[in-house]
Amino acid sequence: MQYEAMRQQICAVGKLLYDRGYVAANDGNISVKVAENRLLITPSGVSKGRMTPDMMLLTDLDGNVIEGDRHPSSEGKMHFTVYRHRPDVGAVVHAHPSTATAFSICRKPLKTPYLAELVLGLGEVPVTPAFAMLSTDEVPKSVEPYLAEHNAVMLANHGVLTWGSELWQAFDRMETVEHTAKTLLNVELLGGGVPLSDEQVVTLISMRGQYKTLAQKTKGAI
Ligand SMILES: [Zn+2]
Fold this sequence. Notes:
There is one protein chain. By secondary structure, the chain is of the alpha+beta class. Helices cover about 40% and strands about 15% of the residues. The chain has seven helices and seven strands. It has helices at about 5-20, 75-85, 100-105, 115-120, 140-145, 165-190, 200-220, and strands at about 30-35, 40, 55-60, 65, 90-95, 150-155, 160-165. A seven-stranded antiparallel beta sheet has the order 4-3-2-1-5-7-6, with helices on both faces. The two termini are about 30 Å apart. The structure holds zinc ion. Zinc ion binds near residues 27, 75, 94 and 158.
């Protein structure tokens, strides 16, 4: 079995997605680029909290199975689209965290600059304009416009897609999307909050380069 360590890392991330309530039942999918035109991707029909390393599929970017005896995730096309448009991306995570999914149903992007993390790290998280029918080409087409300029997108009436240079970064971004959505929901429940000033936002944006340099020194972040 090839790529044993990465298969185990995918299982660990799947368990975290499940334990944190970002997926229910068999929802969600994870993929990692392990070589040129080679991905490890989670199987369909299995809880992400109960996966074992042997369940992963090794595929190419067209979805052809190279190794494994299960069916790859039904939303694989969405993952393949991310890798085609972003050669710098090494991992993609899709989940249905309930607060961010509610924002997607209400077509509310995460963009008000209440939190430094949103400005500095994650960036604005847009929502696709309309529901894309599951397992069709509508799903990859719906995310294409957001791939170049963002680190995450909310899929209308569906869930969240994040990507990163490696798997933990893609997971961290999923966690930050849901944490931000929860915080923004509480702000709305409390009657609205005070955003950061334009000057503070500009300062934070100017700091992105410093953090990027630091992150690259430690783990090769995008
Ligand atoms: Zn989904």
